[in-house]
């Protein structure tokens, strides 16, 4: 039997295993949740009850996952259509898992999809803020009250931040030698801590080696990823002597990769560290 025929059969079986009148996310509590990627895992593990979770992605229980302790003994599944369909989930949660056509595919199979939205601000009261994203996910998982509680905790911690008033600049650096300028969550994170972003160009780009030759940031915000494949490659800007010199300075604030890899409540760990750290 060809791969296409197998997929069609599995799609039919999955559709038969789902009620014909499926509830939209947020109107009923799903009890067979499958999460397809690392970012979706964080929300599912934080907000859903264990008995609601059917499977998470293979990265959910790794050390670099913020919620890895909650993922212990939770089954995992590859973000491949055939593997997911045979589980007969009543809700698929994803940010990027399964590829760009995953949402349309699963919905055609009769399986609702809850998508982790994109946000670029910490909390300005707008629809695209982290609290709004938390509530969106909590509602979709049938845990609205748990979402409100998490938002309250998030805002309490944010209000308690003693923002820096020393007007210091900070350069965010990943192990691969990438940084981020205005318009990103990293930039908003630095602002929330009372820091100015050393990178002035918007978007994600290589660290500004030329600028570092004649101008120095006050603080290096170094993202720490512990996976081997996230370490500098042969051509990474992080292998340049100028970059290595920056990381050898005393005013380096180390940020766990899990704090900033996805947009969520856990960014508060990074903001708190930046507000307090980097003192020479």
Radius of gyration: 21 Å
| Secondary structure tally: strands | 10
Report the oligomer. single chain
Task: Give the averaged pLDDT, no decimals.
Answer: 84
> How much helicity do the residues have?
25-40%
Number of discrete helical segments: 11
How are the strands of the biggest sheet laid out side by side?
Answer: 2-1-3-4
How much of the sequence lies in strands comes to 5-15%
Helix and strand layout, with pairings?
Blueprint: H1 3-16, E1 33-35, H2 38-47, E2 53-55, H3 81-85, E3 91-94, H4 102-108, E4 113-115, H5 130-140, H6 144-159, E5 169-173, E6 178-180, H7 185-192, E7 196-197, E8 204-206, H8 209-212, E9 219-224, H9 241-247, E10 252-256, H10 257-260, H11 267-276
Parallel strand pairs: 1-2, 1-3, 3-4, 5-7, 5-9, 9-10
Antiparallel strand pairs: 6-8
Helix pairs in contact: 5-6
Write up this protein:
- The structure is a single chain.
- By secondary structure, the protein is of the alpha/beta class.
- 34% of the residues lie in helices and 13% in strands.
- The strands form 3 sheets. A 4-stranded parallel β-sheet has the order 2-1-3-4, sandwiched between helices. A 4-stranded parallel β-sheet has the order 7-5-9-10.
- It starts with a helix and ends with a helix.
- Mean pLDDT is 84; it is low at 1-26.
Quick tags:
280 residues, alpha/beta, four-stranded parallel beta sheet, 10 strands, 34% helix, disordered N terminus
What's the gist of this structure?
This protein has 280 residues and is of the alpha/beta class. The chain has eleven helices and ten strands. It has helices at 3-16, 38-47, 81-85, 102-108, 130-140, 144-159, 185-192, 209-212, 241-247, 257-260, 267-276, and strands spanning 33-35, 53-55, 91-94, 113-115, 169-173, 178-180, 196-197, 204-206, 219-224, 252-256.
